[in-house]
Amino acid sequence: MSKPYEASIRNIAEEPWQQFPDHFGGALSKALVHPDTVGSRQLDYRISTYAPMAYVAKHQHKVQEQVYHVLEGEGLMEIGDEKRVVRQHDVVFLPPGVPHSIQNSGLGNLTFIVVTTPVKDA
């Protein structure tokens, strides 16, 4: 159920950690700006922390664009058939239709922001 569509200020501690579908091994996220948390219509903004070996299954979006901004740790980002190490301060842009996944291949937690727009694929 969506929240009212209005301005809001929230603290990150107010949102519980969740393991969304197709996320495995301790791939946890907080949906900070999302239809279910603040009533957003065009934006999904999450902070995620993946334990070592945690990952999201390879997938693609029909119309959504995504940005991943790595805050700490390191992992492997798979884009199409290419795998690249990502670490602090790396920013990844994914246009619609590009298969991708991210996994924590490092020794500590991998923490990143994910911004998706629009909220849902058409």
UniProtKB/TrEMBL annotation:
Domain Cupin type-2 span(s) in chain numbering: 48-115
Pfam families: Cupin_2 (PF07883)
Keyword hit for ATP-binding: no
Domain of life: Bacteria
Record key words, sorted: Metal-binding
Alphabetical list of PANTHER family matching this protein: CUPIN TYPE-2 DOMAIN-CONTAINING PROTEIN, OXALATE-BINDING PROTEIN
The name this protein goes by in its record: Cupin domain
Lineage: Bacteria, Pseudomonadati, Pseudomonadota, Alphaproteobacteria, Hyphomicrobiales
